[in-house]
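Write out this protein's structure.
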Amino acid sequence: MTTIYAGKKFRLASLLLIFSLTLAACGFAAPPANDSNAPLAPNARDRLIAINFTRLLEIRHVSKKKIDEGVSQRGFELFLKAVDPTKIYLTSQDVAEFEAQYAKDCALKAKEGKLDAAFAVYNRFLQRVDERVALAQKTLDENNFDFTVDEEFIREPELLDYAKSDAEVADRMRRRVKFELLALEAEKRDEEKEKADAPETNATAEAPEPIVPGRAEDPISKLKRRYSTLQKRFHQTSNDDLLEIYLTAIANAYDPHTTFMSPKSYENFMIQISLNLEGIGATLQWDDGYTIVKRIVKGSPAEKQGELKIEDKIVGVGQGVDGEIEDVVDMKLTDVVEKIRGKGGTTVRLEVVSEDGKRKIVPIVREKIDLEDSAAQSAVFVLYQKADGTVELVDEADAETKKPADAVAQLKVGVIDLPSFYLDMKAKNSGDAGRSSATDVEKYLEEFNAKGVDACVLDLRYNGGGSLPEAVSLTGLFIETGSVVQVKPSEFGPDRARSLNDPDPKVVWKKPLVVLTSRLSASASEIFAGAIRDYGRGLVVGDETTHGKGSVQSMNEISSVLFNSLMREAPNFGAMKVTIQGFYLPSGVSPQLQGVPSHVVLPQFTSVLEDIAESDLDYPLTFPKIEPARYPKFNLTSPSVVESVAKKSAARVAASEDFGKEIEKMELYRTSKLRKATPLNREKYFAELDKLDANKEETEKMEEIVNGESGVERDYYLDEALRLTRDYCEALQTQQLAL
């Protein structure tokens, strides 16, 4: 199966993904579970995957580049970075030895199915993990920490070389342990503050307790257990895990978005883009050896059953109504998830420990789950203009009860939050319409029309992309016909561009449109925002530019390519996501690296975050400008309209206390990022931390987005977007510009 995908770089939450597969019928052995004392070794299945992955890489990548010494050197560099990103485990001697032996030809060898480089490096890495953990444990046992000394922990790996001596290794680990102990003290301080702020208690926050060993959860004991658990996780690495890291490193030598996905990663990817799975409906997180419930999906089996709670620790999993409960403490998160997921209608029993320490068994019947919280959501707001010229904003539900007595005019604005361009590929391939982002947005737009909504705000600020056809379909809801995006190379030749057009003259939304973006808005989001901007169909508002990803990927199941029609059911060898095209806006400009610029810029924290844009990634592609496509233009973003809206918005932002605080947080973040090290003097550490606590809300918001918590939520930013939309409608009316 091939899927055309336009999303930003698929980052694994962990380097360690595990999957066991039986291929006896095909003559291949399943990857063995890794014995913690046995070195990893490649098998016939691994070699076959490597041969075919590298073959497909040369054939299908947009560059058509052959694997050579340059690809090998880049790939090996990226592999080392993926294995030991902090440069805390491998030594300079290790790296020099491996570079001399493997760097020049590792990718060339992979074409022959030779994976010596991957397994030699990773087995040495596991050896170093054991040594570093032993050193950390010894350092913690000695407990000779002086937090009054002025020294620092360098947190930016780019500033570090690999350690050259045992003394340097020991010093680096000692500083790391001190840093982590201070971080644990900070966690405890935050917990105490939360308790003090809770309405049910009058307790006051206490200063962090001194580090005293001996108690079960004192920082010393907790950190020792954390290191032991980390060591176990590294040793649970399977061949599939390592193959994913290694082949992805070789693929990333071509560009950041070409990757290898193990069978389990591919399954998770398809769940993400189709928004449905069969299971219990809980988001889980691994913490110090425990699987923690972090979120329960609305309407899911877990919510309906009612006994599973957020922050519960899952310590055991049993299959069926009477299956034996299997201990899952210290088990990899992906393994635990695999045991909990299952066919709809079957029962899974979870042994959980609640926050109060009570243990219970929770039986849940699995069902098919639609991930509603990850789908488009909408809301309507009413802006009342009062006699004195001020504007009051209320939710639609409160429109009548909170309508000002002196209101002289009103404007309804509908907001749609779209977290991704999703599409149920399984349903589509089976001939069903299935669920998609465009059909969901169309439904909301029809509702807006029925309610007499005057303008629409489409929020793509945290939308990293998704299905390319969905971006075309979504754009078609706002225009009659015309080019939405151009792709190159095309079936007409490597130097020819093909225009992907909206063929349907039906326009669902004919009224004013505002598109909210940020530097997190990528790929398919940039196709939509770029087309709207090129057409002059609506205002683009947000960070100065979007993410800057202008490439298209296809998803190919390796087995289906390898076995083709030779087998009815091919074995699961994972999938390749490969960049096959560059995309260009109707104007002929690609958003690659430069992004889609906003008409109106609003201050938000995403604009200052580091390492999130395409230009921050290793070896990004470049796409020069091509000839523009033919497309009609609206006169809805004339310079006078944009200037009028921007001027009024800038005045409100300058007078806003909330935006003022946001700008202060942004400046604090910029200042902190200039410092690439953290003080290990306790007093200075907490003084710096207190300054950076201003960014905690933004961090938590990002975590919610990663965990799939989306939706329309009013805050000062959205309120300004709504007021700005009102200004936009007025500017259009003033200049008598009509759709």
